[in-house]
TrEMBL record:
Transmembrane segments: none annotated. PANTHER family: D-ALANYL-D-ALANINE CARBOXYPEPTIDASE, PEPTIDOGLYCAN L-ALANYL-D-GLUTAMATE ENDOPEPTIDASE CWLK. This is M15 family metallopeptidase. It holds the Pfam family VanY. It comes from Euzebyella saccharophila. Residues 1-24 form the signal peptide. The lineage of its organism: Bacteria, Pseudomonadati, Bacteroidota, Flavobacteriia, Flavobacteriales. Keywords: Signal. The keyword Metal-binding does not apply.
Length: 244
């Protein structure tokens, strides 16, 4: 009786699984809207790393390799929840509209040079990292594109990542490709493609516009359909094509 029951259950399990695409290791993937928008806790690995298991393991391997070339890949930011992103967004929004007296639309355009609308950050996914070289002493803002350019403190890190990141399946997201729209060039932001690609695919299959128009935070009342259409096309989708 026991065995019969087992066989029956596993047959149903196999049937259910066949509806989902499979990862290389045969595991099913399916990401909920809450997960894609940073609204639910996910299991994260590694002290000061905070990535999904596979991304964590690949990161540790990459970090080891960089060490032996004299570079200390240090994560400045990895997983970030919806609430955390809302905090970043609202702080900037209030600063630009109150202190700098900008109009709401201008403030929003300024914020989305580098920061995402809460719910749309790739940092919600546990696959993306912002990195610097921990061996370099740097004054002021570390996530500054100039600091990664020739002769600057993080240039060796940039060159090392250009050469090696893809071997570990990490890809630069916001490249300096001429004509790319959306977020500005971020030489520090990398994504673990084997998980983030299916996550983006799943996110695209949802009605992102509808999800965003239901949100309520400072400035969200100024999101028009046209603005959100452009934001999805440019800021979410105009990224390194290796990640699409
Ligand atoms: Zn980032």
């Amino acid at each position: 009786m026991q065995r019969r029951k087992f066989i029956k259950t596993s047959a149903i399990g196999a049937l259910a699984l066949s509806h989902f695409p499979l990862l290389a290791n045969g595991k099913e993937f399916e990401f909920s809207i809450l997960e894609l928008m940073g609204k639910t806790d996910i299991k994260l690995y590694g002290k000061d790393i905070n990535l999904r298991k596979e991304a964590h393991d690949a990161f540790v391997e990459m970090k080891k390799a960089a060490y032996s070339d004299g570079i200390d890949i240090k994560i400045v930011s990895s997983y970030r929840s919806f609430e955390r992103q809302r905090g970043i967004w609202e702080r900037k929004y209030l600063k630009y509209t109150d202190d700098n007296q900008m109009k709401p639309i201008e403030a929003i355009d300024k914020i989305i040079e580098y920061s995402t609308i809460p719910g749309t950050s790739r940092h919600h996914w546990g696959t993306d990292i912002d990195i610097i070289d921990g061996y370099q002493k740097v004054q002021g803002d570390v996530l500054d594109p100039d600091k990664f350019s020739e002769g600057q403190p993080f240039n060796n890190l940039k060159k090392w990542m250009d050469e090696n990141a893809n071997k570990y399946h990490f890809y630069l997201v916001y490249t300096d490709t001429p004509g790319r729209r959306g977020f500005k060039y971020e030489p520090w932001h990398f994504s673990y493609a084997p998980i983030s690609k299916p996550m983006l695919k799943e996110f695209r299959s949802k009605n992102i516009m509808q999800l965003l128009s239901k949100e309520d935070f400072y400035g969200s009342e100024h999101f028009t359909e046209g603005f959100l259409t452009n934001y999805i096309e440019d800021n979410i989708l105009d990224i390194n094509t290796e990640l699409l």
